[in-house]
UniProtKB/TrEMBL annotation:
One CC-aspect GO term: nucleus
Highest taxon listed in the record's lineage: Eukaryota
Comp. bias intervals (Acidic residues): 212-249
Protein name: HMG box domain-containing protein
Pfam (any one): INO80F
Length: 249
């Protein structure tokens, strides 16, 4: 049983579809390569920050050890009344400023939270500008109504059904015997090739924009993670330096 040959129009449609799928595959591969390059660049930056942190900690440990050796090797002053009173004041006074900044810094962070909350409340109480109102309305409309780019269509037929379904349901709302799915399928099959090509183009554009949004989101998350790790390492280095200076004195 040899299958009957396809009509030339159907065969040409299949050929165009294959070419479109091949081009789309190449575009996806290029986007994946670009995302891999961005991820590798971010990993190199993180590795560089780790190496710098290890080097700084090593230098800090060396300086701390040399300061301790110098303090152990220096002769102690004679225990006279004047020299006895001076070290007590010198040791008591400098340590308070060393301890105070840390305490003030921690307390300052805690005290900023209510101030920031009050500032945010005050900002919300202020009358909003027309620009902010328009932005909020746009955000609300995007939140209430799902945009086409956020909906994942499997093929152009689903996109066509999404657009044609409301009108078809409104047209046949009084006829309970009408099968909407069959009507949509028949309407799609009877649709001219030019209009099908338009839906194919829309589908490709929506799919491309959705993939670009996912790539941008992944890159932004990776960059935010790298920045957070760098900030944590910088804070750890600053605390280690402060402790080393306090111990050296």
């Amino acid at each position: 049983s040899v299958p009957s040959p396809l009509p030339p129009s159907v065969e040409e449609a299949y050929r165009r579809k294959c070419l479109q799928l091949k081009n789309r595959t190449n575009e996806v591969e290029d986007a994946n390569d670009a995302a891999r390059l961005r991820l590798a660049r971010i990993k190199r930056q993180v590795e560089k920050l780790r190496i710098e942190r290890a080097f700084l900690l090593e230098q800090l440990a060396k300086r701390t050890s040399t300061n301790v050796e110098d303090s152990e090797g220096s002769p102690s002053p004679p225990p006279t009344a004047t020299t006895f009173d001076i070290p007590v004041e010198a040791n008591a006074n400098p340590r308070k400023p060393k301890d105070k900044p840390l305490r003030i810094k921690k307390g300052h962070r805690k005290s900023n939270a209510p101030a920031d909350a009050d500032a945010k409340q005050g900002a919300t109480k202020e009358p909003a500008s027309p620009t902010s109102e328009s932005n909020s309305q746009a955000k609300g409309s995007r939140a209430n109504g799902v945009s086409k780019a956020s909906v994942e269509y499997k093929d152009p037929f689903e996109l066509y059904c999404e657009e044609a379904r409301p009108a078809l349901e409104a047209k046949n709302k009084d006829d309970a015997d009408v099968n909407i799915e069959e009507e949509l399928t028949r309407a799609w099959e009877e649709l001219p090739e030019a209009e099908k090509e338009e839906y194919q183009t829309k589908f490709d554009e929506l799919k491309k924009s959705r993939e670009e949004e996912e790539e941008d989101k992944a890159a932004a998350e990776a960059e935010a993670e790298a920045e957070a790790e760098a900030e944590a390492e910088a804070e750890a280095e600053a605390e280690a330096e402060a402790e080393a200076e306090a111990e050296a004195e």
